[in-house]
Amino acid sequence: QYISIISGVLILLMLSARLYPSAFKKISIIYPLWQKIRNFILPGLKSKPASVLTLGLGMLNGLLPCGLVYIAASASMSMNSVGSSLLYMMLFGLGTVPMLVGIGLSGKLITLKHRVVLNKMMPAMIITLSLLFVVRGLALNIPYLSPKISNNGNKIESCCHRK
After folding, report:
1. DSSP state of 141
2. Above pLDDT 90, what percent of the chain?
3. Closest Cα partner for 149 from 4, 8, 7?
4. 143-145-150 Cα angle (round to 5)
5. Would you state the pLDDT for residue 21?
6. Going by DSSP bridges, is the β-strand pair 155-158/149-152 parallel, antiparallel, or unpaired?
7. What's the pTM value of the predicted model, to 2 decimals?
């Protein structure tokens, strides 16, 4: 429950940092650390040829997971076992394959106007998911949305399971 609530709050904070970066520069303790790291690394990068730099940074960027992966990882951490978490992430990965292939094949068919609309909808979708994590973690006894979970000794019971 706590992981679900913390995940939802962290996702909201990350979205806020993305939407209002100037506000986070003023209050964040991470920003000064980032500036020090950046000032240490950038001079060495600027001495490299542009093609090498672009290729290297592109390869490193490919290793970074996207926001949806972070959301799925947060959701998997709130599962009741390691096996359930692994299964969740495996199914998430398999579930993304058709969409990624479809996007790759039809990316040129989406007009700039539709891309702008999708980009405007993304914060609302992220807010919805993060609020669902928080509500789920609160265990408000709402079946399938925020089930009441009780720990009776070694057995965890949920209102969503049949007796």
Report:
1. S
2. 12
3. 4
4. 60
5. 78
6. antiparallel
7. 0.52
Torsions phi, psi of 81, nearest 5? -155, 165
Question: DSSP letters of 104-137?
Answer: HHHGGGS-HHHHHHHHHHHHHHHHHHHHHHHHHH
Distance in angstroms (rounded) separating the CA atoms of residues 67 and 86: 18
Please state, in angstroms and rounded to a whole number, the distance separating the CA atoms of residues 110 and 87.
Answer: 33
Confidence class for position 131, pLDDT limits 50, 70, 90: very high
Helix, strand or coil for residue 57?
helix
Phi-psi region of 9 (alpha: psi -120 to 50; beta: other; left: phi over 0): alpha
pLDDT tens figures, 59-88: 666 566 677 787 888 888 888 889 999 999
Q: Flag the least confident range among 4-13, 111-120, 125-134, 153-162.
A: 153-162
Element (H, E) at 46: helix 30-46
